[in-house]
Write the structure tokens for this entry.
Amino acid sequence: MTDFSDYNGKYIDLHTHSTASDGSMTPAELVRHAYERGLSAVALTDHDTVAGVEDALEAGIKTGIEVIAGVEISVSLSGWGILACEGGSKWKGDRPVRPDSGGTTPHIRAAGELVMNGTDRTYEPEMHLLGYFFNGDYESILMTLEELRRKREQRNPRIVAKLNEMGFDITMDEVRAKAHGGIVGRPHIARVLMEKGYTASVEEGFDKYLAAGRPAYVKKDKLTPEQGIAAILQSGGVPVLAHPIHLGLPAEQLADVLERLKAAGLKGIEALYSENTPEQTRELLELAEKKGLKVTGGSDFHGSFKPDIEIGVGRGDLRVPGSLLNDLKDAGRRLI
Ligand SMILES: [Zn+2]
Ligand SMILES: [Zn+2]
């Protein structure tokens, strides 16, 4: 069992987001904030990018706090047949609300079969992987992420091209104009379809053309869990499963998933997490022990964009002992 008494009074946070993805603080501000909150180490783990890492490392040297280069990669679970909510369940953003927060229990379904509900018919199940790069070499992961970004940028033009083939007179310029300089997505395409009189509503645009399984649908380009783990390993990184509770799986099924991830090279799980109940934390610690996986922990800090989550302490009671970082570094060294 992880020995939480052995922390030397030092606490860390291995899961934070800066302006390089969807956090409110710049990497340097975030590092200073971590220092001011008394943490001894902080990892920057922006979504699908390492763009903030250099600034964070530099701020760490100036401030005198250990900064770990990291990333949080979204991988697709489409082929794994995991995570779908029965009709009538609640959804928040792009994921089903977990049982502990009032939703119905997600169910394992046959591969490829997704249960849709009224609010989001295009849900693509995903899993988040954290990668920690202790030797400062993340060139290969950078290239992988760049390639993914380029592919994603091609998604909207591909959807528009499909619509054009179907006879709709719509252009990317019109779609872009609807996003007002922000990230362009299918809602903007649906809006153009509606304004040009092809559909009666944005929802009809999704129902008839844009949703998964409809004729103008283009899949999001995402790595599989195995590819995500391989990409992190190839960069000399240590791959860890982020917030396992977000998968919403019963313990037994989570154990199976971990087995599969471990076979692909997974080294640890984020057993300490802001949103865990004490019960979930206990189960995850036990599971890590049973599977021979390292334990990590983090708040998933996003600055003022998630005001209820503070760096280091999450909703107030999170404590991630510094000793976990040494364990993780050991796992990293064994990879070399
Ligand atoms: Zn995440
Ligand atoms: Zn995160």
Confidence is low (pLDDT under 50) at residues 84-122. The radius of gyration is 21 Å. The CA atoms of residues 48 and 73 lie 5 Å apart.
